[in-house]
Amino acid sequence: MRVDRARSRTIDEGLARIRRELDLPPGFPPDVLAAAERAVERGAGAEHVDRTDVHFVTLDPAEATDLDQALHLERSGDDLVLHYAIADVGWFVHHDDPLDREAWRRGTTMYLPDGRVPLYPPVLSEGAASLLPDGPRPAVVFTVRLRVDGTPTLDGVERAVVRSRAKLAYDRVRDGDLPVELPEFARRMAIADERRGATRIDAPEQEVERDGDRYRIDYRPRLASEDHNAALSLATNLAVADALHAAGTGLFRTMAGPDDRHLKRLRHTARALGIDWPDGRTLAEFERSLRAGDPAHAAMTLAIRRAGGAARYEPFRPGEVPWHAAMAATYSHATAPLRRLADRYVVLAALAVANGDAVPAEVDAAFSRLPEVMSTADANGNQLDRRVVDLVEAVVLHGREGEAFAALVTDVDDRGARIQLRDLAVVARVDATGVDPGQELRVRLVDASPSARAVRFERVA
What we know:
single chain, alpha+beta, CATH 2.40.50.140
């Protein structure tokens, strides 16, 4: 739904208030900006080998300019070989310099509809370190070999100078723009996911975007190009995690799976939604059988997401295998160093391990400090996203108090029923008893307050 100009001005004011409430910095201190200008002058170094002859391209949202990854795919017998160029942030940002200290304060890039709050100054994150197609860039190139069965292995890591040939967008890319091997790469990764018992939860999510001088809120469908691109990052992150764990170092993304109590509740939810879940079928097998676009199945997908534990960062610990239940594997984040602080350190560790070098002491020490910093950054990002959506929902509905709306129950807990309006991208709660996920309701809007960022409904049928 597109918001008119008057309501858009209210959103502008609300976003400014959210920035103040969360203490989001409006810019960078002078010493950080000066350090960024000095870093830009470094250019590539002698250890960056020339790979400008390799046909790299990037694939991102159309509006993105902080480009972490560029891809090149080729065949080697039955294997597929991915050359994945990752922005060499560690080349520009040095331990304990002003850029480094500021990045530790921020943790991640924060995204709002009216602009981002970047992890690094734009002269780096959207310029010298970004893999834009306007000239050669220093990068760290991961070579990942993918077997026929979808098993990825790390064949090598090197610093290199690369040149992206094209900036491709998810919603505009054509098949001929991308390597012909990409769909097969994604297919192999999907087969491996199924074999491991990994789950892919793509529940519909609200998204607020700026459209000129107005805003819109909607459920954005996930595109095939995004899934294909995600398979490249997943393969790289799995291969890096295995290599680092074998070397006795690293930082890992972990997640606990639903316990027995949650599994029983999920089976009850499936019965309430009228979805068949045979006794012998695992959660992963059941989740893969759910159909996109079916409201009951979408509600089930959301319930599965809410039943799992929260993802965390954990350093290497001798004798422990870090596990990510949704991936059903040991997993690291390495492919977005312009946007996530932790990735810079994982990239530097992988570069050292792959070349038989010792992991730098400051990198190894960072792995024990990063979980707390990244946890705080993730929590702030989630809080930011929720406040933005709450604001826009209230603005969209303000003035429609008293109207009735068709809604679908997506979840039920001790706080009532979570509902999703049928005709607007609005998710809310309503005090309703005796309802089950997937059930249709009629609700009346009681109040919509942009200043409080809150909407309130009551059940009418």
